[in-house]
Amino acid sequence: xxxxxxxxxxxxxxxxxxxxxxxxxxxxxxxxxxxxxxxxxxxxxxxxxxxxxxxxxxxxxxxxxxxxxxxxxxxxxxxxxxxxxxxxxxxxxxxxxxxxxxxxxxxxxxxxxxxxxxxxxxxxxxxxxxxxxxxxxxxx
Length: 140
Fold this sequence. Notes:
mainly alpha, three-stranded antiparallel sheet, single chain, globular
């Protein structure tokens, strides 16, 4: 017989073991909002063209085409396009090269990731598109 600890936190469902929940999930979603605002402000600071911002904002979502192959490839493609690593590296390169257009594109990319995280779309697990590090997304 297993004893229940009255101070323990509820566990997430097995389908998204490792996913955040509760106040931590809320904090990560608010961080997404902050990143969206900061990246958009950075884009405005370099006087970026807002039509370009609108045209490129959803471009990282093309990575979902990887799901046409299978869930594992889809998760890898999505996670590569929705991690801050690549756009941050591009932003640093653009800044070092004195190329505002390059770090402007990186700012758009970072804004997109922040937007997705704000909405609860986290990095994907290979178990399914809705299984993310921020919890379940969509209907089951």
